[in-house]
Amino acid sequence: MLKRTSIKRPGTSAAKVISRLWLICLSLTLWACTEKVPNAVADPLPSWNEGAAKQTILTFVEAVTDSAATSYVPPQERIATFDNDGTLWAEKPLYFQFYFTMQRVRDLAPEHPDWKTRQPFKAVLENDGDYLSLITLPEIFQLIDATHTGITVTEFEKQVRAFLGSARHPRFQRLFTECVYQPMLELIEYLQANDFKVFICSGGGMDFIRQFSEEAYGIPRENVIGTAFITEFRMVDGHPELLRTGEFVKPLNDKEGKPVSIQRYIGRRPILAFGNSDGDIQMLQFAESSERPYLSLLLHHNDPEREFSYTGGTEKALEMAKEAGWTVVYVKEDFKVVFPFEVGKQEQ
Amino acid sequence: MLKRTSIKRPGTSAAKVISRLWLICLSLTLWACTEKVPNAVADPLPSWNEGAAKQTILTFVEAVTDSAATSYVPPQERIATFDNDGTLWAEKPLYFQFYFTMQRVRDLAPEHPDWKTRQPFKAVLENDGDYLSLITLPEIFQLIDATHTGITVTEFEKQVRAFLGSARHPRFQRLFTECVYQPMLELIEYLQANDFKVFICSGGGMDFIRQFSEEAYGIPRENVIGTAFITEFRMVDGHPELLRTGEFVKPLNDKEGKPVSIQRYIGRRPILAFGNSDGDIQMLQFAESSERPYLSLLLHHNDPEREFSYTGGTEKALEMAKEAGWTVVYVKEDFKVVFPFEVGKQEQ
Asked: How far apart are CA B4 and CA A318, in angstroms?
């Protein structure tokens, strides 16, 4: 179909001929390079130890992407949802967003002299570990309300970015965005490379997570689902602004709220769901289907040396995993490397 | 860096050599093909007449994608939001979703003998045009509640698909999904090809639009924002189900609700917003920014011959367009072709 004359177009200069010759050489070398070399395929999950969990993931992804197999799932249906706290980044000693909340309380304290004598603000300002270790959920909501609402979305985003750019994890002395799990970064990238749409579905604040999801995980803002406040649209001096009210979007994005939000934000069930706690049970159930393949995964923290070890808040999920056949991933046994800042250390 | 020996690997058979020669020929032809041919770039918007609207769009897209220009906008921020009814598909004589609602009333009537004598159901069952032309908003919500809620998401989706696969537009006698605007299909594709993320932001039902957005517009389900009902998660016989309750997600996705939802679902302001009615004013305002380029567009229906002509419900938006300098797109003057089923007719 292509006429040879097309490469004899008039006006071809000597320089062009030379550059064409270079292109031919380049084509030849590239072609030689791309020739299949058996067993030389790069491991997409190098920070995962070989074992049942890694193999289950690889087998699943191969199964749903093999267009000749009955297990094939078309790209638009390849939805993967990940919990955030304790699944994509650490959640101990406290949820990272709570450190932001405490920072904001300290920042705002000068405007609220009564906080010096009023709990739970007093405990935050005095760094009263005994009080904070027993803080109640209504008290946490009181702190969140005082620090996360009544401001514009733009202001809030700026505050989150300032915090994430400076505050450090108390144990690892790293930015919180560095305390993400290296094996999960690889898994996200592997899934995206296989045309999965990867979403975060977190009980944490949606606008909080969106300030770092792209840089830290390669997950775009619009793929972050979380607990959110209702905002109000206003024109301020001719400029559009959204004010964060104190009213939560219903439902909170935890437990039964996770499948509800997944349906609302995505419009499809995930075929892969990854969580770590009792709050993720319904999301993992939501992925289950008799009509197409699915993979429900539960991360278990059992590595006090490199990270943390705990079962609190995950007991029911671990029980359910046995019953439902969910794949349990163990930090100690399955993660060759835990955090990105450890990559390369082993080789030294 | 590459050694020539890499193409002299032992075990190279005659067949391999021949296939390599073929590859060389292919490389050469491909390279010859990709040489730049001036003025041969295809028009990305062939169904748009040449004019101010088309030129404004082309200039805007070139400006935000030119990485050497100060007007450059990185891909993750290239968010475009489109209203649906009257912007992507027609909305006359009635909103298309209202035909679905009436169909569902007729389907469900045998289970509700009282509807025969109860308004507004009676008017739907008797096809009482006089009554329906004056139907009130509370009555519409009554019909929606009776037909859109109290069922599972799965059932609802099935009903929508059945309707869209069979019901026809009263004037054009085409499936409703064929009554989409050809120029808008081209614009969506053009934006996506330029790494825009294209979203629908509609006052209509989110789950309704999601049943055809991929096939009709090439817009994935998760990029559809609309008015939605709160659902409830339940395990039914060991299977996860979501039940559509009668409670709306706050706010309804119209007027001030549109920017609120855009922030909630996307987490970023659009740099291009396209609407057609007073319900889109706030979305178009939300795109405005002094910090980066933006384009706010308003479609005006002034073509009774090929489509419809009306100003009802768009008066304020047309007024605002003048004040704010929004680009008004006129169906009559700017659309060379209106519907996909007309494509090619002109040439016959």
From this structure: 56
